[in-house]
Amino acid sequence: MLELDRVAKLYGAKVIFKDVSCAFASGSVSLLVGGNGAGKSTLMRIMAGLSRPSAGSVRLAESGPRAEGPRLGYLGHATFLYPGLTALENLAFWRTAHGLRLSGAGLSAMLERVGLAAHAHERAGIFSRGMAQRLNLARVLMLEPDLLLLDEPGTGLDAASLALLRREITAARQRGACVALISHDLAGDAPLADRLLFLADRKLAYDGPPAAFAGFDVPAGAITDTGADREGGICCA
Ligand SMILES: Nc1ncnc2c1ncn2[C@@H]1O[C@H](COP(=O)(O)OP(=O)(O)OP(=O)(O)O)[C@@H](O)[C@H]1O
């Protein structure tokens, strides 16, 4: 679905990463981990076409079930929600912006799916962080994206919402979507993933099965949160 070939990103003279080559297949979940500032969000923005690589290339497969090409769903740090619009109006706005054929009932069903049915007519501006993130998730999921890129989607979510998020990721994979997920919760998210990518030392330091990452020799100081999880042996059931 998506191929990166020797991708590098520099800001001025500062190298964020270089020589990142990897392919992301349909019907798979890739978990992207690394310490703060390792370049995960930067890499995902390149994958989403929101940022240009300084070197290398990104190729998105053009063939697939849709005549117009693969559909991208990107959930980044910004929610892209309009605070003055209700939850339902926000979804209606994005439905129109994306040219989706989704009825009012379909939009309500989306809100139900993310547990916001009771808040359909409340303004997004008064939503808690977790509620806003749920609505943001609905905004992305209603696209039924072929390529689903999620940058720390669990931020602000309670346990029930996290479970919902993980069910949706698994469902997207099962319907054939290519999913990439940035997370600091290796223990929680590794079981979802077919593959783990670890950014450290300005390169892709590990690309392989999540289970084998437990035995990978992480460079000292390169990682903190996921390192603790690895020592606990939680991630690699
Ligand atoms: N526009 C920019 N100009 C200069 N440096 C930038 C810019 N955007 C990001 N960076 C730098 O790139 C590096 C990687 O940032 P990025 O947000 O990709 O890290 P991350 O791995 O997602 O971190 P975190 O886990 O904290 O979210 C950081 O050192 C950051 O300061």
From TrEMBL:
Signal peptide positions (record): none
PROSITE patterns: ABC_TRANSPORTER_2 (PS50893)
Top-level division of the source organism's lineage: Bacteria
GO function term, MF aspect, one: ATP binding
Every ABC transporter domain range: 2-226
Alphabetized UniProt keyword annotations: ATP-binding, Cytochrome c-type biogenesis, Nucleotide-binding, Transport
One Pfam family here: ABC_tran
A Gene Ontology BP annotation from the UniProt entry: cytochrome complex assembly
PANTHER family: ABC TRANSPORTER ATP-BINDING PROTEIN ALBC-RELATED
Name of the protein in its database record: Heme ABC exporter ATP-binding protein CcmA
